[in-house]
């Protein structure tokens, strides 16, 4: 099936006056070889419903449909882009559903309910890319409704997603990702591939959820990593003081040296810390003190 029998993307952009808005992170991809390469990174799409965030003028949308996705549910905030996608919708009857709205607010399970296998593919708007990823990785229940995430990020964010312990980029994002999924950088995309070009290099990241992450309360993991990386250069015996339990006991139960620093502790160590924290808080609650993991707020990055 060819994607060449649609109007060229530059024409679509001109016709619909799609001047790129910085406030919506609009950096469009017009090279259909590149959009096909991104879509292929997700694997076989034949039986799959693809959720695309921010279809824009539709370059990636065309590639996903041409590769045979059963259906694309495209969520777009910019009304001008929604109008510009009419030709693509007409070319692929019944296979493109355009949802006008904010991807941060979307009820994804409802959008793909009864649709069978699903994945997300997106050239993300960079201003909301990290909160979107954190939201997808925080899905409840787990395993999530999607089989994979194939996402374009700024290279620096991609490095934070896949970072290993002991490296500069290792932090809360790598821990959440590593706990719930396996992630790799598939390839880099130069700034010159986008219209208009962003200031930085970008990377496509492929993320596959782990069916059985190590048992752990998400909010507790968020809380301990927030404390640990709030003072990332300090020893844990210092940085974890804000957790409101005996830090020596906490580290002892988790099996972590008090002199260790956050950036060297692997995901398994943070899971052990989160579980130990929940257990110690429960213990102190039974002793008469209020509180438990329920009162922990979920951090968004
Ligand atoms: N997919 C297109 C492409 O590759 O050429 C456009 C990608 S552009 C980087 C990001 C797109 O996301 C824009 O079309 C923008 O309007 C849209 N967008 C920005 N914020 C959004 C949000 N919160 N929810 C849904 N779409 C959003």
The CATH architecture designation of the largest domain is: 3-Layer(aba) Sandwich
Radius of gyration: 21 Å
**Helicity level:** 25-40%
Strand order of the largest sheet: 4-3-2-5-6-9-7
Give the integer mean of the pLDDT values: 93
Number of helices: 13
Largest sheet: 7 strands, mixed
Taken in chain order, the helices and strands follow as HEHEHEHHEHEHEHHEEEHHHH
Distance between the termini: 40 Å
**Bound chemical compounds:** S-adenosylmethionine
Q: Name the poorly predicted regions.
A: 288-301
| Overall domain count | 2
Strand content range: 15-25%
**CATH class annotation of the largest domain:** Alpha Beta
Per the CATH scheme, the topology name of the largest domain is Rossmann fold
Instruction: Tell me the name of the CATH homologous superfamily of the largest domain.
Output: Vaccinia Virus protein VP39
Count of DSSP E strands?
9
Family: Belongs to the class I-like SAM-binding methyltransferase superfamily. rRNA adenine N(6)-methyltransferase family. RsmA subfamily.
Domain Ribosomal RNA adenine methylase transferase N-terminal: 34-211
Subcellular location: Cytoplasm
Keywords: Cytoplasm, Methyltransferase, RNA-binding, rRNA processing, S-adenosyl-L-methionine, Transferase
């Amino acid at each position: 099936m060819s994607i060449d029998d649609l109007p060229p993307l530059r024409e679509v952009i001109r016709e619909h006056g799609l001047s790129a808005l910085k406030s919506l992170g609009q950096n469009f991809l017009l090279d259909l070889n590149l959009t096909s390469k991104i879509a292929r990174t997700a694997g076989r799409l034949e039986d799959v419903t693809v959720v695309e965030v921010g279809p824009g003028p539709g370059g990636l949308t065309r590639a996903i449909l041409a590769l045979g996705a059963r259906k694309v549910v495209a969520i777009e905030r910019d009304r001008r882009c929604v109008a510009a996608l009419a030709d693509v919708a007409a070319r692929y009857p019944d296979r493109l559903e355009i949802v006008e709205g904010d991807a941060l607010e979307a009820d994804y399970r409802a959008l793909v309910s009864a649709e069978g296998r699903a994945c997300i593919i997106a050239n993300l708007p960079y201003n909301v890319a990290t909160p979107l990823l954190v939201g997808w990785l925080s899905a409840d229940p787990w395993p999530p409704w999607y089989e994979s995430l194939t996402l374009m990020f700024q290279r620096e964010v991609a490095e934070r997603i896949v970072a290993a312990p002991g490296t500069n980029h290792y932090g809360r994002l790598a821990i959440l990702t590593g706990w719930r999924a396996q992630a790799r950088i598939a390839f880099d995309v130069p700034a010159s591939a986008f219209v208009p070009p962003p200031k930085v290099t970008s990377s496509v990241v492929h993320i596959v959820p782990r069916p059985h992450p190590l048992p752990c309360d998400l909010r507790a993991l968020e809380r301990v990593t927030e404390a640990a990386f709030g003072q990332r250069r300090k020893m844990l015996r210092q940085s974890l003081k804000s957790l409101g339990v005996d830090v020596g006991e906490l580290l002892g139960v988790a099996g972590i040296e008090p002199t260790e620093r956050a950036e060297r502790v692997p995901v398994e160590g943070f899971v052990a810390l989160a579980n130990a924290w929940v257990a110690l808080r429960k213990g102190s609650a039974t002793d008469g003190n209020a509180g438990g993991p329920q009162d922990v707020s979920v951090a968004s990055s």
